[in-house]
Amino acid sequence: MDPMQWAYNQKQQGVPIEEIRQELIKQGLNITYEALKKRLQRMKKQIIYEDKKEYSDNDIEDYINKMIVLQEASEKLNTKQVKATIRIDDDKPIGIAYWGDWHIGCIGTDYKALEEDSNKIVQTDGLFYIGAGDYKDNYISNSPIGGQFGQIIQPGMQDIVVMRYIEKTADKCLALLKGCHDHWTQKQADQDFVSTLCEKANCVNLWHGGEITIKLGNQSYLFRCRHKYPYQSSLNLENAMRRIMEKQGPCDVAAEAHWHEPYVMDRHLMGEYRVMMRSGSYKKWDDYGQQLAGYKGKRGVPVVILFPDKHKMLPVRDLDMAIEILQAFRR
Fold it and tell me: Domain count of the chain?
């Protein structure tokens, strides 16, 4: 007798569907409860579908297996990471700049200052940088309403300009992380522009932020970097960076951006001296900042100087001063 006809007869005799299903499985017919229930219902209606498309439990299992294979293949193309170790082969002190909030595209961005600072970073021996996000202004369709009217060039052209700066500074770039303005493209078009930038710079793709261990000489320095982190305070610029250590454990350097105000703090915390630093911004003027309270972004690329033969850090808020100090140490 056909297994389904047998199952239908059993159902007519009042046998529970699950009990029927288990017996069918023993007979080699692997079927889900819902699939069996539907087929018995059709038999009760005495309707025969000669060409109705259906899938089997085996089809579902095959789909799941292919989904796993696709996921594994996709992961091989995913360069994002939240932990990285970078060794710098140098026996002299080096500088690590935390450089972000370029906001290329905004009409109120100081492009001359950005050009000057990029040249300084490229030309200074022993100076490297970690990109802190918001490389482009990137006001697109569902971004905060009205932001697009404050742009001097549109997002497509912003991509070209940002790419040029990344190419120019690629030899100095250790890692890039994603800012909130950069992420708007990901949310609306499923395009990860920062991953493309990381490929261009051949640097670590630190996703939305994470840990970087920098090995120099016989020393290791742990950086925890974010574009922004919860517990922001406009009254206490170090608050979120301190909370990074409280939530994730102590580190040598906690770094942020987002507030458009450069900041460094060297203080004793959790048993050691720690550095907290925040990138400034080239976006001096925008309507939103003026609406809040006449807010003006401040240019600033903070640098922490690291030493290869002793665990010592020297944070400097001003890029020009940091370069002078670094050059003196490297003579």
Answer: 2
